[in-house]
Design goal:
Neutral Protease, domain 2, 614 residues, alpha+beta, Immunoglobulin-like, nine-stranded mixed beta sheet
Length: 614
């Protein structure tokens, strides 16, 4: 690329991969590296046809050690991104491009702040112009830039104020590295029948989109996206939406530009890209959705079970949610990486080991069970996460908990005779109870203030305890009422954001309408005791001599080292209580018979069956 290193340590493409900030020592910097206390300049023109160069380049002010909020200023709402990129997969492992961000001012501001990390920003190519339907008043000029290496902020300071309702287009050319495994856009090498090949994949949540391109990298800042990818003709580009147009690159034989269809409103971390030489097989869902399974050509015929089960799982989830799949297509890519798990992007699922899709025991029951559960989880996230996205990472359980709960239901539906699949939710619940009984566990809803806490949220509490709480709500509200509330939640907030209070509102309304929840109760009062504090209660039942009444006592169950097995903390919960008897045993009716509130350490329950009936 012709980079010249001025100071510090750089990768071979001039894009550093350490944390920090830097400023060029040149009197008129051309490139600013948002990642390292390093400065670099370019000997050639910025790539990808950047916007017009302003007459002079504003200077950069470096700010470090910020103790302020990690959240972006609440002044701008992104409306649309146009992202044009050229990943040099077989070259120097860099990706160059330009992002145009259409913004609406929602509070008066004299600066524009975006996230950018581990990339070089080409200062001379940055422009700020008026957006659509704008006033004739000129847009203020950019006087200088500032950066914050702690919060990954890149801020343009303006000569004047932008008023409420003003629309602007902010264009930033950049160059990033493809060498950061599992973060942003990245490449990796794999063996294909003795031949080493390379491909590009992407992982963007919880805070890696800012390493792929400059953006407002917060989940509540949804926008539409148009993606243009310049690629080699022997590769295929796959993203959230179908390709709208492919044209050759003039003067560059062997290269083409794919323009993808405009996305619906979605969070920045949902924009994904795979560039690969893979082949695919296509199946069609029962509602006509095209589904492509991508893999190495010699192993594609071993994905037959996935092709079958994906159709059944989608049918179940569309029925459960009463909503069709929210995008016009679905791609599943078997990434040949030796890494656990999968990444369920919206409309594009990446399995991070193709052995998960096929293996030497691909026809075994265990493999089918595993693949069914894994696929069901990624598909459930298309609605709970893609269609309706948690407003902030504090409520990520609304995505991961529901995906876990629904992968249990969907898998059991597809494989009704498999005991392992049926018993999985109870096994996972017992596992997370061991975690949740420790003194220093975190609640399901945690006040997330920084990226470190964001990453902490992706654990068994968020996935499995949340799933158990969802299952509990399904029981005490009854499946019909609970499903009614969940469907209303999805419909009310489709293509938008939500937090747990939005879910409580819809479930409360359904419970009141169906007469399942007393009108003096609401789900917020009940469920906040389960999501806002850690742990869970243990209930002691002390019956009287006749057995017709009992005293119920609650306290937090907590395991500590030493001789003490319990530690009485002040935590209390709203607990739904139900019971049956030996004469007419009914374990299917799970409606609440008695509530134990969070202000009660004990309650008296009367009209129980006598001791002789038990």
């Amino acid at each position: 690329m012709g980079w010249v290193l001025k100071s510090g340590v750089s990768t071979d493409n001039g894009v550093d991969t350490n944390n920090g900030l830097g400023l060029s020592v040149d009197p008129e910097p051309v490139v600013y590296n948002t990642d390292q206390t390093t400065s670099i300049t370019t000997e050639t023109s910025p790539p990808s046809s950047p916007p017009p160069v302003p007459p002079s380049t504003p200077h950069v002010v470096m700010m470090t050690g910020s103790t302020q909020s990690y959240r972006l200023p609440a002044t701008l709402q992104p409306l649309h991104y146009t992202l044009r990129i050229k990943p040099l997969i077989h070259g120097d492992q860099s990706v160059s491009g330009t992002v145009d961000i259409d913004l609406e001012v929602i509070q008066p501001t004299s600066n524009i702040t975006v996230h950018a990390s581990r990339m070089a920003v080409i200062l001379k190519g940055i422009t700020l112009e008026g957006g659509l339907g704008n006033s004739p008043i000129p847009v203020p000029s950019i006087t200088h830039f500032s950066t914050d290496n702690v919060r990954n902020f890149f801020t343009a300071h303006l000569s004047g104020e932008l008023g409420v309702g003003r629309a602007v287009r902010y264009s930033i050319p950049f160059v990033a590295s493809l060498k950061n495994w599992g973060e942003g856009f990245f490449t990796f090498r794999y063996n294909d029948t003795g031949v080493e090949r390379i491909m590009l994949a992407s992982i963007h949540h919880p805070s890696f989109t800012r390493q792929a391109f400059p953006c407002l990298d917060e989940p509540q800042l949804k926008a539409t996206f148009t993606l243009q990818v310049t690629r080699e003709t022997n590769m295929t580009a796959i993203s959230n939406m179908p390709i709208a147009e492919t044209v050759p690159v003039e003067g560059e034989p062997g290269w083409v530009v794919d323009t993808f269809q405009k996305t619906p409103m979605m969070s920045p971390h949902h924009l994904l890209l795979v560039v690969t030489p893979f082949s695919y097989v296509e199946v069609v869902s029962k509602t006509g959705l095209p589904i492509r399974v991508w893999a190495r050509s010699e192993t594609l015929n071993e994905t037959s079970y996935l092709q079958q089960v994906i159709v059944e799982l989608l049918d179940y989830l569309e029925t459960y949610t009463a909503m069709p799949f929210p995008l016009p297509k679905l791609d599943l890519v078997a990434v040949p990486a030796d890494s656990p798990g999968a990444y369920g992007g919206w409309g594009l699922v990446q399995f991070y080991s193709d052995k998960k899709l096929y293996s030497a025991t691909a026809n075994s029951t265990d493999h089918h069970n595993y693949l069914t559960v894994l696929t069901a989880h990624q598909l459930a996230g298309q609605w709970f996460g893609g269609l309706v996205t948690p407003r902030w990472w504090s409520d990520i359980w609304l995505s991961k908990g529901f995906a876990t709960y629904l992968h249990h239901l969907a898998s059991a539906h597809v494989l009704p005779d498999e005991a392992l699949v049926k018993n999985r939710p109870f096994h996972m619940m017992h596992m997370v109870m061991a975690v949740d009984s420790k003194p220093k566990c975190h609640p399901v809803h945690l006040n997330v203030k920084n990226p470190q806490t964001q990453r902490r949220m992706f654990d068994s509490i968020t996935y499995h305890k949340a799933s158990a709480l969802i299952r509990m709500m399904n029981h005490f509200l009854t499946p019909d009422t609970f499903t009614k509330g969940v469907r209303s939640y999805l419909k009310t907030h489709e293509y938008g954001n939500a937090d747990q209070d939005d879910l409580w509102e819809q479930l409360t309304q359904a419970g009141h309408e169906d007469g399942i929840l007393d009108t003096h109760l609401n789900m917020s009062t009940i469920m906040n005791t389960w999501t806002l504090q850690p742990g869970y209660p243990v209930i002691r039942v002390v019956r009287d001599s006749t057995g017709t009444s009992a005293t119920l006592l609650q306290e937090r169950f907590i395991v500590v080292k030493g001789n003490r097995k319990r530690d009485r903390h002040a935590n209390k919960w709203w607990i739904p209580v139900t019971f049956t008897n030996q004469t007419t045993p009914d374990f299917t009716d799970t409606r609440v018979q008695v509530w134990m509130s969070d202000t009660e350490s004990q309650i008296q329950v009367n009209q129980l069956p006598s001791a002789d009936d038990c």
